[in-house]
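Task card 7
Instruction: Convert sequence to structure tokens.
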Amino acid sequence: ARSPMAPKKSTKGKKVAKAPLAASKTVTKPKHPLSESRPKNFGIGQDIQPKRNLARYVKWPKYVRLQRQRRVLMQRLKVPPAISQFAKTADKNLATNVIKMLNKYRPEDKAAKKERLVKMAEDKAADKKKSDASKPYMVKSGVNHVVQLIEEKKAKLVIIAHDVDPIEIVLVLPALCRKMDIPYCILKGKSRLGQVVHKKTATALAITDVRPEDKAELAKLVDSCKAAFNDKYEERRKSWGGGIMGIKSNHQEELKKKIVAAEEAKRAAQI
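Output:
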């Protein structure tokens, strides 16, 4: 059997390769070194990588995760009025003035107390009738002590921390202050209150007495706290907190509303 012959190539219309282009005679001007573009190469061993925010990839400690989850949970769930009132804290101006007043009457530390007691003992040994080292004015701390001062109506102003855990420790204080007609305020940060009394944290503080030169300033603070907290107690006693949904839930709710609206429009068109 004869093998089939390959088809002959047609030579008609064959294109000839183009001649190489002549070298361009245009001369490129040298660019200024300050304005010359130098693209970076971020390959291995090349330019330094830019700084990025890697917070999403960090494995945070458990206490950080818990406090963030708790914060989100308190936003999502409906919070009873008795607890939600602690989220409505004093504004920055009022809080600053209260802290200034508290710092004037910080309790004495161990060294100062020892010095005062030694002086009192020396005066007593010398048979002095009146000692110069009298007990100083100071802020009272501790929730049990503060409750006792409120019940005895000795407290002039009560300061409560907003982030006490468990919150039940100070839950009764706003209602008790209002019942006994004692001005109170809720400040951010139990650690701020703790710094005043030389401790890590403090749940509640109370001012019982001040020096004569500070009585006018205390009266202003009392009026401000009454207007911001005591007078608004009834209003806040009825308002619930929380119920703030996330962005995904809000989008889903909007989508459901659109679907319901479209179905109602269809039914109205059929009637």
